Amino acid sequence: MKKLEGSKMAKVEPRVPMREQAPKERIGNFNEVPFGYSVEEAQREAARCLQCKKPKCVEGCPVEVNIPAFVKLIREGDFRGAIRKIKETNLLPAICGRVCPQETQCEARCVLGKKHEPVAIGRLERFAADWEREHGVEIPQCAPPTGNKIAIVGSGLAGLTVASDMAKLGYEVTVFEALHAPGGVLIYGIPEFRLPKAIVRAEVDGLQKMGVKFVYDYPIGRVETIDDLLARFDAVFIGVGAGAPIFMNIPGENLMGIYSANEYLTRSNLMRAYKFPEADTPIAKGKRVAVIGGGNVAMDSARTALRLGADTVTIVYRRTKKEMPARAEEVHHAEEEGVQFRLLTNPVAYHGDEKGWVREMECIK
Predict the structure, then answer these.
(1) What CATH code is carried by the domain that includes residue 281?
(2) What confidence tens digit (pLDDT) does each residue in 92-150 have?
(3) Do 304 and 350 sit in the same domain of this protein?
(4) N- to C-terminal Cα distance for the chain?
(5) Is the N or C terminus of the chain more exposed, i.e. has fewer CB atoms within 10 Å?
(6) Residue 143, in any domain of the structure
(7) HSE on the CB side for 74, CA within 13 Å?
(8) Are 116 and 12 in contact (CB under 8 A)?
(9) 171 within domain boundaries
(10) Hey, which residues does 215 pair with through a beta bridge?
(11) Do 118 and 45 share a structural domain?
């Protein structure tokens, strides 16, 4: 695609689709759904970028990655240069390329997207990160030690981001994690088929090589307080996330068979319950499953239930499909896999049997 005089453009190539597992195949496993771009596919997609003089996409990126620059390097075949450019401001590209909501951030501001599909910035970021993992990861050079120590409470995306930034600036960083593995919601909340645990581990390994220390099974507030940490660190960052579930407080919520998404996904993801009895943690495997809500967590729960053997899975959401906060890609994947949608519907009560197990859900439409 070449620019013409003024704002006119030559014929725009369509967005390069990403190859993925077929729906009927993937509902029988927990493997990652998209396969990622090949070299040829990545370069074709990168060639769609207009290389704007005033790139709006960068304004839409929370960490201000120089998007036109790394996309241009991919187009030219300089994949090492592309990942170096990304890592100037983002040391977690393999994670962000998979789960960042690009359609509401960088891609939403893409100039090409005004009349055509925007450049697949997230997919290109993922390509560059995956290429580096296959061809050798370079550890960014850190500034000389400052002599100051930083404590980070929580090893989720916020904690890992702060850890990487502080380490690059020369601070001595220690991350305290209450669970037995790093990643926070990246490992206990997001399923393997959307974000493989190996990807998170690889990003954490990179931080450790930069000198970041991780302490596991160490819940701050019980083992130590924030005041205790401030007594031995120069600064403390609290990135504990929003892990406590919120219920609707309607009749029957305490019936057996009703779970918060937090518990359900933590059992399946962090504790590998989908491999029970190979893993130690069991999980309920319902045949008819209803999931309340329309966000990414709801889609993750519904798609997990399918993979655990449910006959039918239904998303029950109080608003319209257009108003769903879930990523469009996740809704699309759920529909492909056979998840049903009951929209403009909300539960008002649950009814159980004489043994205390949920059997019916009463809704208002």
Answers:
(1) 3.50.50.60
(2) 999 999 999 999 999 999 999 999 999 999 999 999 999 999 999 999 999 999 999 99
(3) yes
(4) 49
(5) C
(6) no
(7) 36
(8) yes
(9) yes
(10) 176
(11) yes
* β strands within the chain, DSSP E: 149-153, 172-176, 213-215, 235-238, 288-292, 312-316, 340-342, 346-352, 358-364
Quickly count: other Cβ atoms within 10 Å of residue 34's Cβ.
17
- Of 260, 266, 263, 257, nearest to 247 by C-alpha is 260
Lookup: tokens for 313: 């899975």
What does the alpha-carbon distance between residue 351 and residue 263 come to, in Å, rounded to a whole number? 21
CB burial readout 191-228, b (16+ within 10 A) else e: bbbbbbbebbebbbebbeebebebeeebebeeebeeee
Locate 261 and state its tokens: 């998404």
Tell me the pLDDT tens digit for each residue of 18-58.
999 999 999 999 999 999 999 999 999 999 999 999 999 99
Same domain, 199 and 267: no
pTM of the complete model beyond 0.70: yes
What residues are paired with 149 via a beta bridge?
172
Structure tokens at 291: 């999931």
d(CA 147, CA 338): 55
Q: Which residue has the tokens 């019980």?
A: 222
CB neighbour list of residue 118: distance below 8 Å, 6 or more residues apart = 15, 107, 108, 110, 112
Structure letter (DSSP) for residue 256:
B
**Alpha helix (H) residue ranges in 171-295:** 185-188, 197-209, 226-232, 261-269
